[in-house]
Task: structure prediction
Amino acid sequence: MNEESCQADICIIGAGVAGAAMACSLAGSGKQVCVVEKDWKEPDRIVGELLQPDGIEQLAEMGLKPMLEGYDAQDIIGYTIIHSHRPIHIDYPGSKTGKGMRNGKFIQKMRSAFSAGDNIRCFEAEAKSLIRNKDGGVAGVECSGKTGGSFAIQADLTIVADGIFSSFRKQLVRGTGEVTGYFLGFLLKGCSLPFEGRGHVFLTDPSPFLCYPISGDEIRFLVDFPKGKPPKRGGELVRYLNERVRSRIPEGMHAAFDACMEEGAFKAMPNHYLPSKAVPADGILVLGDALNMRHPLTGGGMTVCLRDVNTCAGLLRSMEIATPQQRLALARKFYGSRTQNTVVNVLADALYNVMGNQKLRDACFHYLAEGGKQAEESIALLSGLDKRRVSLLKHFVSLAAKSGWGGIKRQRSLSSATDAYHLTGEAYRIISPLLQNELKSKPLQAGLGLAGTLFKSKAS
Result:
């Protein structure tokens, strides 16, 4: 690792999923690239371990699909959703697969790949402040090295990819992230899931828990703690997990679960909501979680991140970055392209809010249990393969409307009609602000107006 000042075409701040994939995509490009990462040891995280099918397609388009090999990553063919001990199975469309894997193994594989590139220089240091030119544009970054000294990296383009706890977000992105709750993560070893090769979602009060394989003998469990403070370790937490999780998993998993509870190797991670609101500026781009976050329930974070990287890499191949005008054009094109992430972003937080409402949660389960296009098209949205906002609106409207009308048909009473009205209204209140935060445009407003009309007409 070098710590002397240098000049580069591109400086990447952060070598997590976004930064490492960006560096991999630039290896051999002919551009001189510097990567600044404060800790090159293998990360140990509880999220970023489920890659949806579209994320795999993004890697394949960049020639990076081999980054998923060599560390026992597991094929995921779809989801099993369990409600009141009743399972339903939904496969990814077109025999597509996702991957369950150790986040740190994936990152280290990419780091090893790009660090071997002749045009890549790696620095173990903390990026402290952006260097500004006389016109206010970004011209690089000041860093603090491991030995205590400081040095500068001058670059035509600086890419900020320093993740959830970004040091530079406040300077570059409008709005602040909101902590929506916490995931408590732990690993079960040496046992099998009820249904192989699937992500499992257990619909429970007050919110779901989920699990999926990340290696041949490891199962990642994530238990949601809505809002409030992160769960405190100790006997009370273990009792809560025994009551909420252990009682709902098969007996064959109990021994591994009990061993995990005794070991107490838990990790807590805050879940954030941060709509994308970057301002195009000369010499700077923001990627991945530093720019945009959504609830991790649907595993969409790495898909969005890799779409960002793939788009940015393509623009850098076709556009020059020598002048302020060229760099501003690049930034505008990049941020403008991010409407492709609207469905993944909105679905994650909309579905999480649905799961926190008992009636909507039941409605969602029964909607998916009917199978057919309802399930197939819904999983296509979740997997990132269907990027159309109209599809998201259609299924969200249909879920609430069918549930409401189902209640009226079953009970044939005024109270059931009132419940249907409130249910569809609650669904609209969930999705409307999420869509508005993602994209302020006339087509969107028209779509929201149509959705509102449908909700009201179905319920009245």
